[in-house]
Amino acid sequence: MRKAAARRKRAKTGTEKRIQERNRIILELYRNGLQQTEIAKRFGISKQRVKQIIDELAPGITTDPKLATLRRLRSFILRYKPKITDPEKLERFLRENCTKYSLEKLARELNASGDAIRNLLKALGLLEQAREEKARRMELRKQEMRKEVIAWAKRQPRENLSYGFLFKNNPDMLYRILYAFSESKEEFNRNKAKVYERFLNALGLSRKDVGMTRPKRKLNKEELREKILAYISKAPRKVDSLYYPSRSRTAVARGFASSYVVLPILKELREKGLIKETKILGRKYYYVPGQEERIEKLRERAVRLALNLLYEEKAKPTFGPKDIKAMVALLLDKPKRIEDIIKLKTKSGKIASLCSYPAAIKAVKALISEGKVAREVRGRKVYYRRVNKL
């Protein structure tokens, strides 16, 4: 009995020692930057138990800001293995250079990703400081650039300072002027005329002095809505033809206004039922009720061209559900099975897939219900063919 009790006591003491050693290692790993989830996975216990052990051995350690900073640095070092592996030196390097270097340069210096550096700076409370310094340097650069472009402009003849002249003959200087005198990125992108007037005012000039005319009056929303509706009423239109090109220097002159203005108007007209929307080979088209036949002819022509391009291996078009229906109707000029419809043999002999089997079945059923396609059974095989070809 005494021997068994002694064995149990020794076993209990050994178990307690192992638990104490495990708990000590858990606390050390936590101090070295390992997350509670990672520690729990390593020892096969729950995250809540890991937190209990840490709180028992070192109360208040999880809320200590200094240790939190040190743990964040150590965690960063463990995960990304930067060139600076000492936490104190790494923190000093970041505090000294976060306002001097960009995120990209810091990432290169430390051999880590830009996102990782941004998250670390945010955790250390340095990200806002770096942004403020960047904004300050940018403003100083703009002020210097303003002085340079004004000094350059004073040496030029007045007629050479018009927006159109610079756009054709000196676009680089025009860009510098717009960048230096814009107060925000949005103004630089959307209100260049206002920015350029600010530049002329800084020179003590006006539009008349440099031979510039006032821009044409913009249409209000009501007038623009009427023009768009009248334009679509003539024929179905691609959505791209209704707003200005995204590339400012494109040679194509089209559209009524920017996409930010036109798209809400189209949505409003569609909700009122004045226009309809459809997709042909992935491109949006708008049309008025009564133009359905024209839309179908347009779709048929587009699908026919897409099939030719696919046969020539010049393009790989994506067919939508309505496009598949038009394509099936085109291909059924003679009796065919579904297996023959969904595949196309190209010019070089390769087999191109046109659509999935369920999509083809769905299109055929729709055409049968409309009376455009008939079903034929030959032995155990089912064939389909256009009605007007029977």
Brief descriptors of the model:
390 residues; mainly alpha; two-stranded antiparallel sheet; three-stranded antiparallel sheet
Detailed description of the structure:
The protein has helices at 2-31, 36-43, 47-57, 65-80, 87-97, 103-110, 114-123, 127-154, 163-169, 171-181, 185-190, 192-202, 221-234, 259-271, 292-311, 321-331, 338-341, 357-369; strands at residues 237-238, 276-280, 283-287, 343-345, 351-353, 373-378, 381-386. It is flat. The strands form 3 sheets. Strands 1-3-2 form a 3-stranded antiparallel β-sheet. It has a two-stranded antiparallel ribbon with strand order 4-5. It has a two-stranded antiparallel ribbon with strand order 6-7. The protein folds into 4 domains: 13-127, no CATH class; 141-210, no CATH class; 221-290, Winged helix-like DNA-binding domain superfamily/Winged helix DNA-binding domain (Arc Repressor Mutant, subunit A); 293-389, Arc Repressor Mutant, subunit A (Orthogonal Bundle), CATH 1.10.10. It is mostly helical. It starts with a helix and ends with a strand. It contains 18 helices and 7 strands.
